[in-house]
């Protein structure tokens, strides 16, 4: 899965201090900005088959793809995203504030990266699965996204708050939903009872994200864990985010566990290995 559609590796220790992804990227050969059409194009070309995006509702009820709550850090705009109209967002430079050397250079400034409507991604990649992380937590935003997805045939999962999950579930029980609380509940509950061969209720028809550093605590990882949760309609993913992946994880992927990452080299290598394994059968 292409995390935030793709984009640069992030120094998460620095991010904890700056609170801003744009100020915390690492120098790399990736030449795109997260949550942009260019980033997704690179990820899809590398072989990503699931696209994760951050979504906001604008003042004029348009759904746009952008991560931060405000425009101030990453762009040349200012103020909350939800208070801007799409017409205002169209002219904003989405790569303006990105720097890996504390402001000495801004490699993505003036390179044409923009904030796009969600529809632009669906039009370009109609056969891909989308994971949509809805940043807003109000009823109007829930309604707007639900109305939009009602007309889509492609597969999607909505990542939202506990409040949002309850709203969407009441509206349409067939929607696949994820919230921070639901992921935490599944993880904690499985740690408590997984060793006994049990799958807790919170891990049924759910999604489990596991940070790579925590895999040793999950009983049966990777093959048995994946098989066990999949038998209850659940998926397991390694939550690597914007970090470079230094090991192959080939055994993990073949066992049915997905990887959430923006590391293009890893995506390319994984897909190449898949083809080699399929040809060898």
UniProtKB/TrEMBL annotation:
Residues 19-274 form the GP-PDE domain. Pfam families: GDPD. This is Glycerophosphodiester phosphodiesterase family protein. PROSITE patterns: GP_PDE.
């Amino acid at each position: 899965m292409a995390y935030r559609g793709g984009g640069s590796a992030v120094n998460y220790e620095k991010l904890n201090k700056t609170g801003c992804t744009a100020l915390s990227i690492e120098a790399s050969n990736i030449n795109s900005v997260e949550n942009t059409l260019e980033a997704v194009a690179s990820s899809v070309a590398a072989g990503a088959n699931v696209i994760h995006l951050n979504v906001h509702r604008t003042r004029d009820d348009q759904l746009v793809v952008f991560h931060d709550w405000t425009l101030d850090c990453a762009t040349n705009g200012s103020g909350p995203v939800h208070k801007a109209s799409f017409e205002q967002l169209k002219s904003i430079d989405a790569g303006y504030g990105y720097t890996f050397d504390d402001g000495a250079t801004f490699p993505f400034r003036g390179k044409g990266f923009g904030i796009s409507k969600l529809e632009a991604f669906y039009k370009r990649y109609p056969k891909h699965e989308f994971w949509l992380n809805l940043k807003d937590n109000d009823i109007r935003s829930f309604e707007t996204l639900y109305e939009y997805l009602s007309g889509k045939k492609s597969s999607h999962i909505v990542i939202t708050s506990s409040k949002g999950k309850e709203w969407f579930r009441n509206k349409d029980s067939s929607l696949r939903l994820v919230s921070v609380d639901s992921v935490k509940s599944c993880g904690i509950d499985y740690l408590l009872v997984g060793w006994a061969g049990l799958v807790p209720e919170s891990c049924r028809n759910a999604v489990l994200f596991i940070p790579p550093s925590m895999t040793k605590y999950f009983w049966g990882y990777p093959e048995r864990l994946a098989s066990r949760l999949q038998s209850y309609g659940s998926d397991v993913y390694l939550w690597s985010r914007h970090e470079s992946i230094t090991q192959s994880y080939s055994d993990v992927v073949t066992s049915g566990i997905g990887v959430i990452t923006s590391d293009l080299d890893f995506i390319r290598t994984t897909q190449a290995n898949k083809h080699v394994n399929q040809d060898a059968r």
